[in-house]
Design a protein that fits this description.
485 residues, alpha/beta, Nucleotidyltransferase, domain 5, 2 domains, 7-stranded mixed sheet, 6-stranded mixed sheet, 17 helices, 19 strands, 21% strand, nucleotide-binding, Rhamnulokinase
């Protein structure tokens, strides 16, 4: 529920939400009648850059944009007679920056799309078997998980690894913490105890203090540094609050589910497909199916598998634009929807699609490897992507139901993919379940709601938070083809 006190009527919250291709600073307002209202204050691009012999993030530029956005947010709030109570930060997972004892970033952080960690996998597995890793961490194997990246570092003495959202929080407050939902993606976190798997740090020769202490969503990281206050004009008592700093954790917290037996798809650059549990599933069957057990808000378990996402589509659009093809996404999807549903498909989460560049050619090559041929037309490539994603979603949800022993009655698609009508309908058809699409800004809404609850503006558990999302969101329902409506 939302407290309707006068003291809270002018409370607003700043959400810093940064994905692999863009970032934004938003203001969130919580109302007992209209749920969560978001106002985008500042948008900025993001992307990997080739720097110092690898694919990295231009973190210095990102932090400058965050400060610019917070400054603009402070001005907007002040002009409205509002007060920003706190700031919450969410980003993608697994990547980190190395900070020395003086608090300086030693280099721009590597991107998970860099290939450096591939060479460390065998060495890590010789020290800790994949079976042992999974039985402890419950983490899906991905060659770019944090432990493989850390194993590629030439020197770690005197350094700490701050996961990307924690690095932003450190530069804003001077406090070093590791938020738990993101910690659970490192491969060095115990899925059952919710603590660091220190035995793995020892086995890999990593410093015992390579990560700062853990902090839970809703806890306060710290107040803003004087230099940040000067640059942004924010009130002196503004705090940074830990939210579900792994963006998927914030997105799942904002799934507007009305029943407990829901499945979710957080659809963006990647697709995160799964169910919400109270305890991890650490079976060998789960490991072989490559499912992950990541922490959610309120110590829930996000039992999911990474499936290829709209990265495939955005990379194709980028390639076509470079060739002078300027058809809009809407018309591309309309043309793809008019094509036959029995066209070729690919494994959308094949690692061959992880790196950027030449995506249409790589998709056609993958189709040839299946013995089929994909027409050299953008609409045909788009239809192949959409069919392949929907088929991947259906396979993953069927596996999740089998491995957890629980059935699901509805699929919620949140994030950017919830706007893609073709993808939503194909997902309903492929899963045989109704799909509820929205909200688009689930990550930012989850971010804001955790802050609002920490401030006492919102009370209750995830059920109550989700009711706030549903109250302020226009949701669209898609029935499976042939279903009785």
């Amino acid at each position: 529920m939302v407290k309707g006190t006068t003291a809270n009527s002018k409370a607003v919250f700043a959400a810093v939400d940064i994905g692999a291709s863009s970032g934004r600073v938003m203001l969130g307002r919580v109302s007992p009648t209209s749920g969560v209202a978001l106002e985008t204050i500042h948008r900025f691009p993001n992307g990997v850059v080739e720097l110092d012999g690898g694919l990295r993030w231009d973190f210095d530029a990102l932090f400058a944009e965050v400060l610019k956005g917070l400054s603009a947010a402070a001005a907007v709030a002040s002009g409205n007679g509002e007060r920003i109570l706190s700031i919450g930060i969410d980003t993608w997972a697994v990547d980190y920056g190395l900070v020395n004892d003086a608090g300086k970033l030693t280099a721009q952080p590597y991107s998970y799309r860099d290939e450096r960690s591939r060479a460390t996998v065998e060495r890590v597995h010789s020290a800790i078997s994949p079976e042992k890793l999974y039985a402890t961490t419950g983490l899906q194997y991905l060659q770019f998980n944090t432990l493989y990246q850390l194993a590629a570092e030439p020197k770690l003495d005197g350094l700490q690894a701050l996961l990307i959202p924690d690095l932003f929080a450190f530069l804003l407050t001077g406090e070093r913490r590791t938020e738990a939902t993101n910690a659970s993606t490192t491969g060095l976190f115990n899925a059952e105890t919710g603590e660091w798997a220190t035995e793995f740090l020892d086995a890999l020769g990593l410093p015992g203090d390579i990560f700062p202490p853990l902090i839970q969503p809703g806890e306060t990281v710290g107040t803003l540094l004087p230099s940040v206050l000067e640059q942004t004009g924010l009130p002196a008592d503004t705090v940074v609050v830990a939210v579900g700093s792994h963006d998927t954790a914030s997105a799942v917290a904002a799934v507007p589910a009305e029943v407990p037996d829901f499945a979710y798809i957080s659809s963006g650059t990647w697709s995160l497909v799964g169910v919400e549990l109270d305890a991890p599933v650490l079976s060998e069957a789960s490991r072989k199916a490559n499912f992950t057990n990541e922490r959610g808000v309120d110590s829930t378990i996000r039992y999911l598998r990474n499936v290829g996402g709209l990265w495939l589509l955005s990379e194709c659009q980028r390639a076509w634009a470079a060739q002078g093809f300027s058809q809009s996404l809407t018309s591309l999807l309309d043309a793809a929807a008019a094509l036959s549903a029995d066209g070729p498909r690919i494994n959308a989460d094949d690692p061959v699609f992880t790196a950027p560049d030449n995506m249409p050619d790589r998709i056609r090559a993958a189709v040839r490897n299946t013995g089929s041929v994909l027409a050299d037309r953008p609409a045909a490539v788009v239809r192949c992507i959409m069919d392949s994603l929907a088929a991947g979603y259906a396979r993953t949800l069927a596996d999740a139901e089998r491995l957890t022993g629980r059935s699901t009655s509805v699929v919620h698609i949140v994030g950017g993919g919830s706007q893609n009508r073709l993808l939503c309908q194909l997902t309903a058809d492929a899963t045989g379940k109704p799909v509820i699409a929205g909200p688009i800004e689930a990550t930012a809404q989850g971010n804001v709601l955790v802050q609002a609850r920490a401030a006492g503006v919102v009370t209750g558990g995830l059920k109550e938070l989700r009711a706030q999302v549903a109250a302020g969101t226009e949701l669209e329902r898609y029935e499976p083809a042939g279903a009785l409506v």
